[in-house]
Known about the structure:
It is a single chain. The protein is of the alpha+beta class. About 35% of the residues lie in helices and about 35% in strands. Strands 3-2-1-4-8 form a five-stranded mixed beta sheet. A four-stranded antiparallel beta sheet has the order 5-7-6-14. Strands 15-18-20-19 form a four-stranded antiparallel beta sheet, covered by helices on one side. A hairpin with a 4-residue loop joins β16 and β17. The two termini are about 80 Å apart.
Amino acid sequence: MKRFAIIELILESEEVYNFSCCNVVLNKNGFTIKDSIFSLSSIDDLPEFVFNSTVIFSVHGRGVITKDSSQLSGLEVIINDNQPFLQKYEIENIQVVSLIRQELLNHYLVLLLEKKICIKKIFLGAIPLLQLTDIIDRNEIIIYNYKFSTENNKQIKISSVKSLEKTFEYKKILYSSDQSMLIAITLMLIENNKIKTEDQFDNLMNLSSRFYYSRYFKLAQKLALVIFFLLLVLNFSFFMILSQDNTTGVVNLNHLNSLKNKTDSLRTIIKNQEKKTGEAFVSNANLSLLIDRITSSIPAGIKLTEININPSKFSRERNLYLFERDKILFYGTSDNSYILNQWVKQLEQTSIISKSNFISYKQESGLVNGSFILEFFFNNRWLEYIN
């Protein structure tokens, strides 16, 4: 474990507490504590690195009792009634026990585990601070709001005090007093030669970690299956769309070839008629511009089925078909005769159309669209009006 995070929970009461945390990086020279943050009042305020690291959890303050093992006889009733979590420490010939009510600790563990924080180990009480001093050779010392004292029989007594010290010295280096517990826990993890620990949290946390890792693995399996299924559905959908587009493209190509053949035939007919009548027709490009302008103004509800430009009419006197110039026939359907009339009036107002007539309008009932044949006579100067 070359990198881990420490979360320190300081209990002032069951409902009032605050968090401190840091990021620890181990190296050849020891360790480096980075991103230290203090006095956070909510789990939601914890930084991102806590959620991405293995976490060492430290709990101390009100509700955590630390006693010399010889003093536990006075706590038998509390231990039996509350079934607390116990953690035993041994420093030289002195044994110390820290405990907390199981219900109280579980409350905070659930809060952290629900946030998907991976807790690897737990430390109870202020005992880790013993890494920073030699209490055996000193009768009393205050460090990080705790007073450690020893009596003649070498029993350790720990009490809470309000320390006025802002810094403390460890191995000739001054540190912030707020960092002392974080540094003490780090030393306890990497050195572990001064204080021996025995607790029931290791197995508990390992089981908890395996539970979460197993749950994440199963969740990842389900997620992978869902993603694979979605990719399969998308692949099939794209295949069907491309297949349909290919079929549509072939049909459109055949349709275009058919239209081209019809266009070529019409051009041949027009040229023959021009030779017989001596009349030339308006440029196809200009006529296409006119038709485009008219059809782009068609409102919703009107659908054209056929357009006949300069329709032909058989002349008995000359015994041939003559084209009626400056005239267009529109064949189509409409679901509303009023909209159709308004569209025709709109075109007449643009001066592109000089005259219009309804050759026919049929509608069998109000449930079906009416069919119409509309006759337009376009102005000889229509190209100027468009431009």
